[in-house]
Design a protein that fits this description.
The protein has 11 helices and 9 strands. With about 325 residues, it is an alpha+beta fold. Strands 1-2-3-5-4 form a 5-stranded antiparallel sheet, with helices on both faces. Strands 6-9 form a two-stranded antiparallel ribbon. Strands 7-8 form a two-stranded antiparallel sheet. A hairpin with a 4-residue loop joins strand 4 and strand 5. It starts with a helix and ends in a 10-residue tail after the last helix.
Length: about 325
């Protein structure tokens, strides 16, 4: 195996990774191994070249109390449905998966522009939700509550500053009881980095958050990231439903949009909390989406910095309460 992998993969799993690649490639040698970004999960991701074959090797990061134990079952079901890249090897115990590598083109290059992309995403989601049901894991409102409680415990914000968000979440949960009978196969993180365009079609990748969830959870995430106008939203919803949305659709969408925005606030602020800071933040004020975009254009907010992530987290917190628009996750 390429020395780059040997340096990066934990010693306890190097032999397992070696054996997994040998099982997929047979006698064909590994020519080139290229480390790729693993995103927020901490997973190690590699592009593996062997002759004309391109594979993607994923090695899970450190265990987490909220790690989804069903991600590989969900990945296999999605791959069998043609929604995820072909799966060649999976070892759930070791946290290793080998799939086809998708050579991607920018989503902005999708033929027909944003409208055609919104329609294609609606169809893709309908196909996902029609697959055999993924395993159940945790009720989404409870997951969101635990994540917000984690942020509160980090000391990122002054004591009591997140109380109103906790209280509003409790009211929502009481007013809208969770019904397990209505849950469907869900990706639960279909942000732009997890959707690939290969020049012909779309693929969903990174299934670590996939389990059974409310059908509107993925809808809410996709709309916030790909349908910033009412026109695009209508195109997506019609493609997903197979009909024009009615009032009941918009009512349920508003609820799940609140929950998904609070979830991503927790994700972003958890990341912010891991970085050094002088003192707890005492102010939840957040810019409007227009002001955020202006700051990005003028270079006052740089992508990937703690400042940008922290501000975006506060924007998602505000959106949970107010419903105002949020920045797409690939702009942060």
């Amino acid at each position: 195996m390429d020395a780059k992998i040997l340096d990066a993969v934990p010693a306890a799993r190097r032999a397992i990774v070696d054996a997994a690649l040998a099982g997929v490639l047979g006698a064909a040698p590994v020519a080139v191994v290229t480390p790729l970004s693993g995103g927020a999960s901490g997973a190690l991701i590699f592009r593996v070249e062997s002759g004309k074959r391109l594979l993607l090797l994923r090695v899970e990061g450190p265990p987490s109390p909220l790690r989804n134990p069903h991600q590989y079952v969900s990945m296999r079901l999605a791959a069998e449905a043609g929604l995820a890249p072909k799966l060649f090897h999976v070892d759930a115990a070791a946290g290793i998966a080998i799939t086809d590598f998708i050579v991607q083109q920018p989503l902005s290059a999708y033929p027909g522009g944003p409208g055609a992309l919104a329609q294609a995403l609606g169809v893709l989601l309908a196909r996902l939700q029609a697959t055999p049901a993924f395993p159940a894991f945790i009720d989404y409102p409870d997951l969101v509550r635990r994540l917000l409680a984690h942020v509160d415990r980090t000391g990122l914000f002054a004591a009591g500053l997140l109380d109103s968000h906790m209280e509003h979440l409790a009211r929502l949960s009481e007013a809208h009881p969770w019904d397990p009978a209505k849950l469907v196969s869900s990706h639960n993180d279909p942000n732009p980095r997890n959707i690939l365009f290969d020049g012909e079609r779309l693929w969903l990748i990174d299934w670590e958050s996939a389990y059974r969830n409310d059908p509107f959870a993925d809808v809410a995430i996709l709309l916030d990231n790909f349908a910033p106008t009412p026109e695009l939203e209508a195109v997506f919803l019609k493609a997903w439903l197979g009909r024009a949305p009615d009032e009941a659709v918009y009512t349920r969408l508003a609820l799940l949009r609140s929950l998904t925005r609070l979830y991503y606030a927790g994700v972003l602020l958890s990341a912010s909390a891991t970085l050094p800071r002088e003192a707890p933040d005492t102010d939840l004020a957040a810019p409007s989406l227009a002001d955020f975009r202006r700051a990005r254009r003028e270079g006052r907010l740089a992508p990937g910095t703690r400042q940008t992530i922290h501000i975006a987290g506060k924007m998602y917190l505000a959106a949970f309460l107010s419903g105002r628009p949020v920045p797409a996750l690939d702009t942060l």
